[in-house]
Amino acid sequence: MNRQAQAVVLLLVGGAVLRASLTGQYLNYVKPSLQPYLVLSGAILVLAGIFTLWFELRPRPAPAGKADGDGHGHDPHAGHSDDDGHGHGVGGPRVAWLLLAPVIGLLLVAPPALGSYAAGRSGSALVAKSDFAPLPAGDPVKLTMLDYASRAVFDQGVSLGERRVQLSGFAMHGPESSWLLARMMVSCCAADARPVKVALGGELPGGLAEEQWLQVTGKYSGREIKDTVNGETIPFIEVSEVTLIPVPAEQYES
C-alpha cells in the first residue's frame, strides 16, 4: 500500500465516521455524549487524508542525479525495488487494506442497535440501591427501565406506591411464557450493553411480536420471576395501557 492508497483509506474511514456521527447512526453503537469526539476524530482523519494526498500529488522538481565517471547523471535509487522482502513495500503492509472492512460495514451493511436477540442471551442487569428519591410529578410519571426495575426489586415498590408509571422498550419472550419489556443499557458503547427486563402483567393486546417497541402504562406489581440466564429478579408491571411506538432514534439507555 503506497502513500496515496493510505490517504484514500484515511479519507474513507474518516468519512464513514463523520457520516455515522452526523446522521444519528452512531447511536446504535455508543452513548450520545460521545458524538463530539466522533466528529472530531472523523474530521482529523479526513484532514490527514487530504494533506497526505496533497503532499504526494504536488509537483516536484526532478531530483538532481550524481555524476558518475563518464559525466552522466546517476539516480541513486535506480534498480532498487520498493519491496523490502517481507511482502510489503516502503508504503506499508498489504494487511492495512483490512482497515476498509469497518468502512464497508458502516456504509453498506450498518449493524442495527442491539435488540431482543442480544437481550435474550444476557441476564437482566440491576444495580443494588438503598436510597430512592421521591418520584417526580406527573400522571403517569415517565421512568427509565432501570429506575423502575431497581425500585421494584430493591425497594419492594415502596417508592412507587400506587403511582402510574410509563415505560418504553422492545417486547421479547420471557420465562414462564411471559412477555417482557426490555431495553439495553450502555455505560460507554454497545460492547458493554446489558439488558434491563420488566415482565408485563395484565391484559396485553394480541399479536405481540419480538422487537416491537411498546410504551406501557401501569402500576407496580409485587410479582416477580427469575431470569433464566443469570437468575436475576425480573419485576412485573401491571399494565393498563399498551401503545405501539416507532423505533426511537436513541434505543439505548445510559
Structure, explained:
By secondary structure, this protein is α+β, with helices and mostly antiparallel strands. It folds into two domains: 3-111, no CATH class; 117-244, OB fold (Dihydrolipoamide Acetyltransferase, E2P), CATH 2.40.50. The protein is built from five helices and eight strands. Strands 4-5-6-8-7 form a five-stranded mixed beta barrel. It comes from Dactylosporangium fulvum.
Strand content: 15-25%
Tell me the Rg in angstroms: 28 Å
The CATH topology name of the largest domain reads: OB fold (Dihydrolipoamide Acetyltransferase, E2P)
Q: Quaternary status of these chains?
A: single chain
Secondary structure category: alpha+beta
* Helix-strand topology string: HHEEHHEHEEEEE
- What percent of the residues sit in helical stretches (DSSP H or I)? 25-40%
- Order the strands across the largest sheet as they lie in space: 4-5-6-8-7
Largest sheet: 5 strands, mixed, barrel
Count of alpha/pi helices: 5
What overall form do the CA principal axes indicate? elongated
Pfam families: DUF1980_C
Protein name: TIGR03943 family protein
Organism: Dactylosporangium fulvum
Keywords: Membrane, Transmembrane, Transmembrane helix
